[in-house]
Amino acid sequence: MDLRGMAARVEAGMQLALPVDYAGVSMAMTRALIERGAGDLDLFCVPTGGLQVDQLIGAGLVRSVETSAVSLGEAGGAPRFNQAVGEGRIVVRDATCPAIHAALMAAQKGNPFQPLRGLVGSDVLRFRPDWRMIDNPFAEDRDPIVLIPAARPDIAIFHAPMADRNGNVWIGRRRELAAMAYAAGQTLVTVERIIDENLLGSETSAAGTLPALYVTEIAVAPRGAWPYGLWGEYATDTAEILRYAKAARTAEGFATYMAQPAAGRAEEPAQ
Q: Domains of the chain (ranges plus CATH)?
């Protein structure tokens, strides 16, 4: 598949699951999604958001963000996200990292919710009426516990080092990517390369492989996480993220930045 073909699967009003910056963000898909222009998207960050989230918001495609944080790391705050929140243009659904993972776990297990104790007594509950606190039915005394509804995103999108010709994708230790794929209706993956070896055929690689059963489409996008890094492949381009953070302080600067080609990513035909 090519990037435009995969982006065409994203329709207005869908919920997208997107990974944390170190886990394989498909920045290659970001521009394809912006070109696609399907708006009113609900972003589900696993468990935090960064550059990809900021750019989708800057392009005016986002309706809401469920996350435990959005930032550009060493580059500071996410400027388009911060301004959109300040102006009330997007809805932020406050979460915590354990709550995000609990919601995905519930979906993976086919359960309507997942209990989570650590939220009891926190202010987060005041802003999440969809999270419900009940008494543990197995306790003799009062024992409150929070129920987190299952998260079932329409589409999960991420980048990985490789896939094989059977559609299996190598994700290594990034099990949050598997959790996203298990919970989502579709999973769109960009990869650095396609290999001939069956990733599930070796004891060495099988444990870190997401089976093709959970993968909808794959596109080859060399350096597709840039300017983020990708484990075992290349490092984060911090200077480029800093350049974006400075440019995107204004809507005009953001537009100018996005009008430039993604110079750090090899523009090779998708396979």
A: 3-95+152-259 (3.40.1080.10), 113-149 (no CATH)
